[in-house]
Amino acid sequence: MLSDVYLFEDTYPDPGDNDLNDLVVQVDKFRHIGIYESGNERVACLNYEKFRFTTFENVSSGDNGLAVEFVLGNNIILSNIKNILFTIDGRYMFTEEDMYPTSTGYYFYITPDIHRRTANCRYILAKKMNDDKAWTWSGHTVELTVYYYNPNDGVNTTVDLNDIAAGQSKVRPFLYRWEEDCENEFAWEVHVPYETPSPLATDYRRNYFSEDIYTYFQTLDDGSEPENGMFYTRSTSEGRYRPYPFAVKLSGVEVLNSNLYNLLLPSNDKSPIDSLFTTFTDWVEDQATDRAGTYDNWYLK
User: Fold this and answer.
1) Which helix or strand (DSSP H or E) is residue 33 part of?
2) Which helix (H) or strand (E) holds 282?
3) CA nearest neighbour of 246 among 165, 200, 189
4) pTM as predicted
């Protein structure tokens, strides 16, 4: 099992309060590989990949929803997928109409009522624990499981056991809200820096289909360069992506096994993240300049 944590600021493209706690989501990733007889050979095939999402309650008042892009691993194509299940507490919640296909995967809008404004996911999936220093979900299990064909089905979804990581599929969570004034399900979105907007994003639709309509890109503190395929970067006098990104991804991290739970305490709401973690901006600067990760453990301080 591997875990990633994502932190989002929900005032994009306004600089906001830089607390990066308006949506906090942990993604636990599992992979099951089986060994099969195929002719005279034994082959390793991918059986399924599972992604478990945990949201954490916060003090944000925005109607923030959680969505995710699923991207197939290398050498795996859509026709290798046997079945997809998206469940909450083991109950099947989605139909094919709720999936938005791409050439390499799907977009899923996890919080309910995907065709209208979503309810805030902190109410749908999360509630406060009795322990004041740990805010976590209410016991709901939200999982995306992708099953693949194997030799028993007449199809091989083979993997290289010497390079398993290269073939792993990915999920890219992002924050969204439906825009009430749009007729065609445009969505305001916040992604990790440099990730692309979804096909339903206001910025994507308006930028590429109607250039005279307002877009969030290159307004206020956004430093995106759509013409160069670069999105959701921060534009400041100190340089792009500094000192506060609109979203952060941390790999190999768990919220309750780090000090990240401090972001979720009511007393810390609207406190800039570097007032709680003093080396955060040093870490961001390292990210922007590709320097060695001296401050990679800023969230443990």
Assistant:
1) strand 23-38
2) helix 280-289
3) 189
4) 0.86
